[in-house]
TrEMBL record:
Species in which this protein is naturally found: Bradyrhizobium diversitatis
Entry-linked InterPro entries: NAD(P)-bd_dom_sf, SDR_fam
A Pfam entry, by short name: adh_short
Protein name, entry field: SDR family NAD(P)-dependent oxidoreductase
SUPFAM superfamilies to which the protein is assigned, alphabetical: NAD(P)-binding Rossmann-fold domains
Parts of the chain that traverse the membrane: none
Gene3D superfamilies (UniProt xref): NAD(P)-binding Rossmann-like Domain
Amino acid sequence: MAAGRGVAILVGAGDAIGAAVARRFAQGGYTVCICRRDASKSQGLVAELRAAAHDVHAFSVDARQETEVQGIFARVEKEHGPVEVCLYNAGSNVNKPLLDTTEKLFFKAWELACYGGFLVGREAARVMLSRGRGTIFFTGATASVRGGPGFSAFSSAKFGLRAVAQAMARELGPKNIHVVHLLIDAGVDSEAIHQRMKAAKGIEASDIPPDSLTKTSSIAEAYWFTHQQSKDGWTHELDLRPSVEKW
């Protein structure tokens, strides 16, 4: 394991992308703080990484609540050290016909995918600016750049998060804070997508063609790659998709 490099705080870190990023940054020598609504769901991952001698912790936090977001940054900084990396990975991928999209559903999609990202990004910037360094990641999707049928709520939220990330990048870049928006224009090779494909098309996971979904480890490597970039060649937006994806 590499020497300690500070803290990577991962908000909205579930069992797919979030877990892969946790593994990659733990292997890279970071103390990893996994934050999700129910921290108990990450105990298996925490045990796995601690067994490999990595410094990993899990916290329960609702990214839509300002006081909880502020509290988790204060706690992590006090108990585990300076936050050098922050990932916002939460989202609400809902697909509903326009006339079935209620006011409540629309607001909840925005609140989690966009507003939560703003809160987390702002608090990450607050602690990073005091030290003049850091990297802030936002996970985007196809819906970040293209609205499709049934995605009026989700795409508007992801468009909004992309705008937040762009504005942050332009403001914080000159202050040595690297803001990255990773646009995943693909299905992710995860249990949730496998179940969705089976329900929609009757396709078993074993029948999915190789390399037709983007692996979570590939997404984690993309985040690691951008984090390692030198200041003279920073990437703000990077899009990932399998070679067979139509775009």
